[in-house]
Amino acid sequence: MSDTTTKIIKAGLKKRYAKEKRFRFFGLMSIVISFVFLLVLLISIFSKGWSAFQQTYVKLDVELNEEVLGINKFSNKDALFSARYKKIIKNSLKKKFPGVKGRKQKRALKNLVSKSAQYELRDKVLKDPELLGTTQSFWFLAKDDVDVFMKGNIDRTLPESNRRIKDYQLAWIDQLIAEDRLEKRFNTQLFSASDSREPEQAGLKGALMGSLFTMLVTLSLSFPIAVAAAAYLEEFAPQNNRWVDLIEVNINNLAAVPSIVFGLLGLAIYIGLFGVPRSTPLIGGLVLTLMTLPTIIIASRAAIKSVPPSIKQAAVGLGASRVQVLFHHTLPLAMPGILTGTIVGMAQALGETAPLLMIGMVAFVAEVPGSIMDPATVMPVQIYLWSDSPERAFSERTSAAIMVLLAFLVMMNLIAIVLRKKFEQRW
Amino acid sequence: MTDLIGTLPGMVKSSLESEENKLPVVETRDEFDVEISGTIGKPLVQNAKMSSRNCDVFYGDKQAIFNINLDIGKNEIIAMIGPSGCGKSTYLRVLNRMNDTIPICRVTGEHTLDGEDIYAAEQDPVLLRARVGMVFQKPNPFPKSIYDNVAYGAKLHGLATNRSELDDLVEASLIKAGLFKEVKDDLLMPGTGLSGGQQQRLCIARAIAVDPEVILMDEPTSALDPIATATIEELMDELKENYTIAIVTHSMQQAARVSQRTAYFHLGKLVEVNDTNTVFTNPEHKLTENYITGRFG
Fold first, then answer.
1. In CATH terms, is domain A205-423 a member of 1.10.3720.10?
2. Structure confidence at residue B6 as a pLDDT band (50, 70, 90)
């Protein structure tokens, strides 16, 4: 190499290295920035949401007075069921805090415990009628305001007029705390109950079951359809055919269509034309199938395309038919990619809200759905509904629901990785 | 503009001419232009296993093979040689209809196996490929166990009725392919874990497990080292007792070592077919001579 060439190269070297360094720095920065955002998001959700996994309970001494209830242990089930348990709770509170005067204060006193207390009491009596006539101590769900206060989300130093809990309520709560009658426990309600207007009674079970049923419908429809479509397009469809090209372009475009459009389509076709019942996991699954199909088809086609042609040729050379080649070799080898695509599509569907708005899945459903034909809501819609509710206690539940949803998404991704590893280990 | 273009070829030519004085080899250009008018030698034989008449192959509008007439004799090994792109692999794939899998490929002419037209409408390509097996350039075992690799074709065609029959078939095929001794203790290990030469013998075992009549080999040793190549060549010698073999190869030594007849292809045409000895010692056509003496290719 001549001296001048060396000189020219040397002169440019510094610039080249600087460029490289700059590029690396920018890359690193972008990763740091995205991590910071992710961290801020997670911290804000977790700091708000973790307290929802605890719930305040209050201990009351209830006198199961047969006269007040108007029943005794020999009454039939119906009488036991419809007795005036509400009065018992009220009396128990009155006895605990005597001398409460005025409508406002009386109502406030009643609101120390959740409305569910009377039903819990009823269930206890129904289970064991021998309790009638005795005085028992039971733990009941506290009202959401008490719960919010107990979790330190109401500042008692604020002037009374700006506070949701008034001074007299504070005095009651302080007394209960002093007597060890207020306790925070793990919130089983969150996972065992369905939605409710009362925050302390609201749980995720309905939404979780709704999501489960919806995902089952989506998976059982979209996986076979998408894999069959991908396999046909890759292995059987005539090449360089104008119709096939048109279909390909359209599938790729469908993946980019805003999801709410699929909701409108579902509304018009499934509900309008075929009369599928709305608000059900069935219709939700059908609409989400439309949405996930392009994702899975594209991923599956890429996976099928990447199967080495030498393997297919070997099978053809041995006298395998095209369908045999597909099922014996191409699909098994493409399975990791297909499964990854499927789980990515399912995760997308699990977090989808917009198309469900259109088909009536934004509904207050207080029952846990038992099948794909029952009215149901799904996790992201539940989050949306709770975030919209005015009660203070719903805000932490919203975060908690997001945490549960995130946990499911992380779990699905883990399953995707595990499946991938498992199938790839088949050499 | 036109002036500039007009002057360009002249400039290139003059620079070439001046180069010519220093580098004397450029004359081979002329040798490519030798007219190929029909095949010379002995393309047809008495006891033909497979034969082609007036074979043309087209990829779309492009013709890849021009009017080939060739017989492959029973229990012989015929080697097909020629420079890259000469159509020898394409012709090989005509013989078991592998070209069917390429949508734009079109084959014409008459092709027979034991006198049956293999391109006839009633001919099933699946059955044909069972009778005419194939071994590929790159060893391509399935990502399954050694056992499953060999058993695959037999299972496909239902050649074994029960497990012990299948076991025997796998063992016999591996013995014929000269691989059994090396792998008999790990038949359940992945076929892809073997060495390159072993993999290729596994592919041969897989092909003969279907009990074909003809085996087509498309450069079976080009991805292997000399020792593995020698093993496979010995194997071919044994196989010709029972099978008819057509081998495409880039190695002229290999063609000389293993084959009884050699066919020389050039630019899609069959130039010369003769006994291997004759082709390598006394080639009739100038192109053949240039190729085997290493002037090009």
1. yes
2. very low
